[in-house]
């Protein structure tokens, strides 16, 4: 069958593609766009990438590579690591290292090292595109029609025609609405990694990944840090795990303004930022919606960072000229299982596509698979189920599969079994570190071999641990597989395969001994 179809398809393809300079034009040179472009080029296609970074309201701007490389995963993980090193220095004294009493980090050195690394990645991406004969245009793209893209830079304009267009334009941080002074005086994750000077006393507003991770590394770097959360932390995560993450941040010195909503930000005469907020009334969950206390709270900070979610930049793209439909609420591009939009030949991948997890490996994989389907005869679709993720707070939270809440709602409590344990990482013993929040939860079916539905791991190196166990989940592992796996001693990951206490038993899940 494939033999009959392919010659026909390639003749047809050749005739059609003569009308276009490119077989594929990707708008957006971030994780998804670059992966898609490089993969298409591997198959001998004529490929172009258009990438343009609109400066943040505070003027931050960066190079090729998108969010992950410039203002996301990469600088964030390095800041997180820098903060963990601080904790490591404190531990080192317990292990006998003779170190100065006060170890301090120099923000400008740290930030400049990070910038150097990011710039080397920007350069690396440009070289890779060149090596693969992918044409790079540092222009802002928009549609003239479904095959014609207009690129604009400060001084030039180009018109490119492509048979297939992939939208991979990502998202940008939101500012809160109706908070006077928010844009004028606040920064976002687009700015924090590019600050030349320490942000000093910082208020981080939000309860998602970005807020918690940022509060975690700022505190770990020794800064006075406050987190303002209007509802819960880490919505969508297992809430028992999320609440342990909050407790651990509190214990590390992050101050919480829980149930609070910012009202305004003003600059004081001394040049500091005066933030005013109101607090939610102490009422039940259902009543919570708009019950706010009359009294306002106020405090001064040096920096206010908004981490209140991300928004699309699709308005710039003139999508209506290609007939590409978006979700009116989210602004994200509506796509089918094959990533095709409402306009045949136009596709969307990564953060901008509706309903996709906003994660780098997801964007990369979706981009590669799309190029393989378009140009290499593949039929493999991206599988968006059981995508693992890790929140890089000082105590990391790794998660894959169903939360306890979701499993209970989907299957009923009688049909699931939850195995759990509080454990103490061996490394914590010498410095006598608090391990109260090191917790593991595995959600399984209750019957038969007890197929695993979800794994949640809170502790050091959760990203590394969860990556391995995500494979097990993908392979359909059960609790009995977990039990029959040999451990690696002494590690934190082995605590997962040693789990034996069920929540249902009501027994103390604290691991004792070796
Ligand atoms: P992006 O990487 O955002 O790339 C889009 C590109 O398109 C950008 O360069 C943009 O400037 C450009 N563009 C936009 N409009 C146009 C236009 N009209 N013309 C030309 N170019 C345009 N994910 C993880 O998996 N792990 C993490 O640890 C992690 N940490 C994160 C930390 C932070 C602070 C943030 C904000 C995100 C983090 N993420 C993390 C999420 C991850 O960065 C994104 O999911 C990923 O970068 C999305 O890739 P993308 O290709 O969809 O878009
Ligand atoms: P999220 O959507 O995860 O969180 C936004 C937070 O802001 C929520 O707590 C929300 O509260 C709160 N919020 C929204 N509006 C307001 C407001 N007006 N005032 C106060 N609080 C408000 O967004 P993030 O930017 O944190 O993360 C975006 C995505 O980026 C993540 O979903 C993740 O996929 C990706 N990411 C991944 C990381 C990783 O892999 N380690 C790290 C960072 C980001 P409420 O719940 O009440 O709506």
UniProtKB/TrEMBL annotation:
Entry EC no(s): 1.8.1.9
Coiled coil: none
Binding site for FAD: 77, 141, 351
Any single Pfam family the record assigns to this protein: Pyr_redox_2
Region (Disordered): 279-298
Gene Ontology CC: cytosol; mitochondrion
UniProt protein name: thioredoxin-disulfide reductase (NADPH)
Keywords: Disulfide bond, FAD, Flavoprotein, NAD, NADP, Nucleotide-binding, Oxidoreductase, Redox-active center, Selenocysteine
Family of the protein in this entry: Belongs to the class-I pyridine nucleotide-disulfide oxidoreductase family.
Cofactors required: FAD
Entries under PROSITE patterns matching the protein: PYRIDINE_REDOX_1 (PS00076)
Organism of provenance: Eptatretus burgeri
Residue span(s) of domain Pyridine nucleotide-disulphide oxidoreductase dimerisation: 387-496
Keyword Nucleotide-binding: yes
SUPFAM superfamilies: FAD/NAD(P)-binding domain (SSF51905), FAD/NAD-linked reductases, dimerisation (C-terminal) domain (SSF55424)
Cysteine-cysteine disulfides: 68-73
Cofactor remark: Binds 1 FAD per subunit.
Boundaries of every FAD/NAD(P)-binding domain copy: 22-367
NCBIfam families: TGR
GO MF assignments: flavin adenine dinucleotide binding; glutathione-disulfide reductase (NADPH) activity; thioredoxin-disulfide reductase (NADPH) activity
Binding positions (NAD(+)): 206-213, 309
Biological process, per Gene Ontology: cell redox homeostasis; cellular response to oxidative stress; glutathione metabolic process
Keyword tRNA-binding: no
Acidic residues: bias regions: 284-298
InterPro entries in UniProt: FAD/NAD-bd_sf (IPR036188), FAD/NAD-binding_dom (IPR023753), FAD/NAD-linked_Rdtase_dimer_sf (IPR016156), GSHR/TRXR-like (IPR046952), Pyr_nuc-diS_OxRdtase (IPR001100), Pyr_nucl-diS_OxRdtase_dimer (IPR004099), Pyr_OxRdtase_I_AS (IPR012999), Thioredoxin/glutathione_Rdtase (IPR006338)
Catalytic center residues: 489
């Amino acid at each position: 069958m494939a033999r009959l179809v392919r010659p026909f398809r390639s003749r047809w393809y050749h005739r059609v593609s003569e009308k276009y300079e490119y077989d594929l034009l990707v708008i957006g040179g971030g994780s998804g766009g670059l992966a898609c472009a490089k993969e298409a080029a591997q198959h001998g296609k004529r490929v172009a990438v258009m990438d343009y970074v609109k400066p943040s309201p505070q003027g931050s701007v960066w190079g090729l590579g998108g969010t992950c490389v410039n203002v996301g995963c990469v600088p964030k993980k390095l800041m997180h690591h820098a903060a963990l090193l601080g904790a490591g220095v404190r531990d080192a004294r317990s292990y006998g290292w003779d170190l100065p009493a006060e170890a301090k980090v120099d923000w400008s050195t740290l930030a400049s090292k990070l910038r150097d690394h990011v710039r080397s990645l920007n350069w690396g991406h440009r070289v890779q595109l060149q090596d693969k004969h992918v044409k790079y245009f540092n222009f802002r793209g928009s549609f003239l029609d479904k095959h014609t893209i207009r690129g604009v830079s400060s001084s030039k304009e180009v018109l490119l025609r492509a048979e297939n267009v992939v939208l991979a334009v990502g998202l940008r941080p939101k500012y809160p609405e109706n908070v006077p002074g928010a844009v004028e005086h606040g920064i976002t994750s687009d700015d924090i990694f590019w600050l030349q000077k320490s942000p000093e006393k910082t208020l981080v507003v939000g309860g998602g990944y970005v807020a918690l991770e940022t509060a975690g590394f700022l505190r770990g770097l020794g800064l006075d840090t406050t987190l303002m959360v209007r509802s819960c932390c880490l919505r969508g995560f297992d809430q028992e795990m999320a609440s342990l993450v909050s407790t651990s941040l509190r214990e590390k010195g992050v101050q919480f303004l829980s149930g609070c909503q910012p009202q305004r930000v003003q600059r004081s005469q001394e040049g500091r930022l005066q933030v005013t907020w109101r607090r939610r009334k102490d009422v039940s969950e259902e009543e919570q919606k708009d019950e706010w206390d009359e009294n306002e709270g106020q405090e001064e900070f040096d920096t206010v960072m908004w981490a209140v979610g991300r928004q699309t930049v699709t308005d710039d793209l003139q999508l209506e000229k290609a007939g590409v439909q978006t979700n009116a609420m989210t602004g994200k591009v509506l796509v089918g299982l094959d990533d095709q939009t409402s306009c045949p030949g136009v596709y969307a991948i990564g953060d901008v596509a509706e309903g996709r997890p906003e994660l780098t490996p997801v964007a990369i994989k979706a981009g590669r698979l799309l190029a393989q389907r378009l140009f290499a005869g593949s039929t493999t679709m991206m599988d968006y189920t059981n995508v693992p993720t890790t929140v890089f707070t000082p105590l990391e939270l790794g998660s894959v599969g169903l939360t306890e809440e979701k499993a209970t709602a989907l299957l009923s409590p009688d049909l699931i079994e939850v195995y759990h344990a509080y454990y103490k990482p061996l490394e914590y013993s010498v410095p006598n570190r608090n391990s109260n929040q090191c917790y593991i939860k595995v959600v399984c079916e209750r019957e038969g071999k007890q197929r695993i539905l979800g794994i949640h791991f809170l502790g050091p190196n959760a990203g590394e641990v969860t990556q391995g166990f995500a494979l097990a989940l993908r392979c359909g592992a059960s609790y009995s597989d977990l039990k029959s796996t040999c451990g690696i001693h002494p590690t934190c990951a082995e605590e997962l395969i040693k789990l034996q206490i069920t929540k249902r038993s009501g027994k103390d899940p604290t691991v004792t001994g070796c």
